[in-house]
Amino acid sequence: MKWCRQALLLSSSTLYGYPMLEFAKHEICSALTKHGIKEFIFVPYARKNYNWYTSQIKAIIEPWGFHMTGLHTYPDPVKAINASKAIFVGGGNSFLLLKTLYELNLVATIKKRVLQDGMLYIGSSAGTNVATIGIHTTNDMPIVYPPSLNGIGIVKFNINPHYIDPVESVQQQGDIRDINIRGYLKMEHSRRVVGLREGANLEVDGEKILITGINGAVLFGK
């Protein structure tokens, strides 16, 4: 089956020295414009205060020429996703986000809309984590328990957002990240992991995946 998937997966929404999302403005605007999209839905479920979170992102996005509404404002989230040409899934806690998506029957809905219908998926941090095969390599604390760690499956590998390279003179930072990822890769159910540095993005266009943005990425294989 030829994939029609379209996605932009950001390591984060913030990068030191840049206002929120400014480092990815070109990529976000290009992805939306490419598909003739002027309005889309924001998914704020990775945080608890949906109205506040949506208003923060809305204040950034709308001056760029796009209209955005929060998914939490729709009485039927599944119907809203089915009618939308694009969604932006924000960052926060990956466990909370995935649990909520499962509770609202949105995991399968989003997967179908992206992989079969070509709906544009933009994700940041936790929103990037849940877009993958699973959230096994998230940096987040398990503050809630989703029914499964399996993600939406837009890409068939794991991502570690906010990836930090090991620093020889500094302990308990990047070196631990590498150790944890390699520990995961020893598990039978593991997949390859992309360590996405701050400021880096993955642009998914059908069967093509490009690393864009700032600082690049690291690929961990089994």
From TrEMBL:
One of its GO terms (molecular function) is serine-type peptidase activity. CDD domains: GAT1_Peptidase_E. One of its GO terms (biological process) is proteolysis. Keywords: Hydrolase, Protease, Serine protease. It holds the Pfam family Peptidase_S51. Gene3D superfamilies: 3.40.50.880. Belongs to the peptidase S51 family. NCBIfam families: PRK05282.1 (NF003642). This is (diamondback moth) hypothetical protein. The lineage of its organism: Eukaryota, Metazoa, Ecdysozoa, Arthropoda, Hexapoda.
